[in-house]
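ok so heres the complex, two chains, lmk if somethin looks off
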Amino acid sequence: MEIKIALAGNPNSGKTTLFNALTGSRQYVGNWPGVTVEKKEGSLKKHPDVKIVDLPGIYSLSPYSLEEVIARDYLIDERPNVIINIIDGTNLERNLFLTTQLTELGIPVVVAVNMMDVVIREGDKINIEALSHALGCKVVAISALKGSGIDELIDTAIKQASGGETVPMHTFSGVVEHTIAHIEEAALHNLPEERQRWYAIKIFERDSKVMEKLSINKDILAHIEKDIKNAENQLDDDSEGIITSERYVYIAEVIERCYQRKRRAKLSTSDKIDKVLTNKWLGLPIFAVIMYLVYYIAMVTIGLSATDWANEGLFGDGWHLFGDGSAAYEEQAEMYNNSMLALEAFNPELLEEEELDAEVVVNSMRAFTPEEKTATVDVEDEETLEITQMTVYYDSIPEDADEETTVPVSFLEAMAFIEENGIEEPDPADYGTWVRGVPVVVEDWLSNANTAEWLNSLILDGIVAGIGAVLGFVPQMLVLFLLLAFLEDCGYMARIAFILDRIFRKFGLSGKSFIPMLVGTGCSVPGIMASRTIENERDRKMTIITTSFIPCSAKIPFIAMVAGAIFQGSAWVATSAYFVGMAAVVISGIMLKKTKAFAGDPAPFLMELPSYHWPSISNVLRSTFERGWSFIRKAGTIILLSTIFVWFTSYFGVVDGTFRMLEEEELDLSILAAIGNAIAWIFKPLGWGTWQASVASFTGLVAKENIVGTMGILYGAGDGTVYQNIAAAFTTVSGYSFLAFNLLCAPCFAAIGAIKREMNNIKWTWFAVGYQCGLGYVVALMINQIGNAFLGDVNILGLAVAIAILAYMLYMLFKPYRTSSESLAGHRV
Amino acid sequence: MKTLREVAIGESVKVVKIHGEGAVKRRIMDMGLTKGTEIFVQKSAPLGDPLQVTVRGYELSIRKADAEFIEVE
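and the predicted structre for the whole thing:
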């Protein structure tokens, strides 16, 4: 017989640790149908036929929170053979509250008292036998972390699954029991006897979800209602309050009988830590330091080198194994590049030859006599395509030379360098231990196999680049997830929500949204993935939607390009980009919170602040790899497919009536250019309805830094530099509108993949991307129309639409909304 | 009527009654704040809200707006 076990318990009771201990690695992580709440299933160690489902961590079986509804629907509808209820032995009182409800379901319950080692260490005593007697079910003492008691728990659970029985020992006060008996008799006599009590209590509580399900006859309902009213009058409370109160009163009695608490010092270690970490004065500075460390480790030091290795090493040319030879190579490469600049500044004609011969070059250099002691050369920045004029000195560089605009190698030094090292570009493979990157290896295979050019390009620029785009994020993500799992497991994450709640709740976010946003300044992909730590579903969705508004590091070259080409390098462009991003988060939060889909949470924000404890390494590692793997699996496909799509549309096109593959410079003939042409009219109201700008925005979907490269190709042809051509194509208003649209519209495919993974719902993914594009569009529209009107160039229709949108947004921003607490404040007695 | 919101930090109080209804009331009671329960107000968050209270041997964070539903003595 197949046995189904449900694992239920409070959050922070060690449920995840126990689930891992019970199943080992045989787990499947998915979602509960239709929601973003994670569902874990697995089979029991040594009993592959026993299935175990990890229910969401809950405090009660009320109908008011998503997690509780999921858990109780599963228990009522699927009726597992046995429930394992894990309770925290160091916090029996609140944990047993759920137990009193689980034992009423008519399903055998096995209570696992966790953290027994801690209880014993602190000198307390729990009488397991008495507890078992008081609760009417089997009780096993365990330590999920240490792995003790697990075998006994498994044996007991399997035994209970066939023929075990749990009879709730608790009775409510006389009048309540009388009413419950009445309800069972009048409305529930068709149900099996052991299930009647739970339903009867729910009907007594007027639980709307249960009443709906049972569809009880109106007359009977009216009759029952009279009984409930009577009980309420006698006990001076509403029915839900009566039940809850009486449960806690009963638990207090049970604790009295079964639990001996040793007198101890007033403050535990955890209390002392908490006194410092959430201190009125120290709390915020400590928080800032911890956040700085998370960012510094995950995004700057380890994280960045991991990403660089993945992108430029593993999925680039290659890398120096353990850094062996990389310093020597870099020094040589820099000398080489600067020498070439020095040469170019004084006699550029020397570099025009097809085949450069070091001896010839050196001889001509020696024979060269400069008319002046300095010359200039134009240097293009790789990332932003900005051109800077640099000065080169002939013999020696004076000490007061400006470092920013001086090539640090003089003409004569360059000559000596070329004489010694030749004029070949240094090859990293000649230094230390060089490992070739995946694309290089694949390229070799392909050229050996003599494959067609289009196939090479498909494999290299489409598939390998796409896989690289997926895997390139993983190392950094793992570092971040490791830190987050640590913060979650040790108990600090709950304090982050505690410290920041006051600020973030104002715009519909949790204090825990801070980390995704912070990480998002580096990269939205791990930022979006970090939203998993937010428990509340609405807060989580809101965070997923808004995280990518914060400008990530890939948008910086683009911002710099717009600033440099259109705004003469003004620093306020970059500053304002961050301001636009943050404003978009706040405005979206406030507006979306007032929509139906995000309407205020019915339950108030009451959050347990768990005791601090040292995290278990295996838990932290498991959670880290699970999240990393789920990104590859769930987000990988969409990233790969969209990368291939953009590759195809940009490298193929019809030239002179024939469809063929294109060179990189022929982007204007590509399918993508045709698409750009076809949709350019959409962007007309934004002030930049050209196919070039549309195509650049499109390629930005692959990765935002691609916008710069595409603009370089599309505006590089013709007279003038790229920057001059861009400046000619945009006004300041349309340029800023272009910037705003690309900052806010759909993020790169990798981030969309992450959104899809976290939403786990195609409808919500589309909503997120649609909202982002929509917001980007209307913001750019308002900038263009209102901006132009200020400059005296009024388009009546456009301005009217822009002002109407602005008015609507202001209306949404200032319209009062009902939060749980406020909406009920009026009802207060 | 004195509510939990007005209790000074470092003070212990007893719950008299939970006001409000539906989800708000239920959630507060589910977390163990029922009639007669002792509450110790530990502190407020660095920004002044929410409060941290000790109840039934554990630490709980509760917003001041929600603390107004809890009548204490």
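quick notes: Residues 820-829 of chain A have pLDDT under 50 and may be disordered. thats all i got rn
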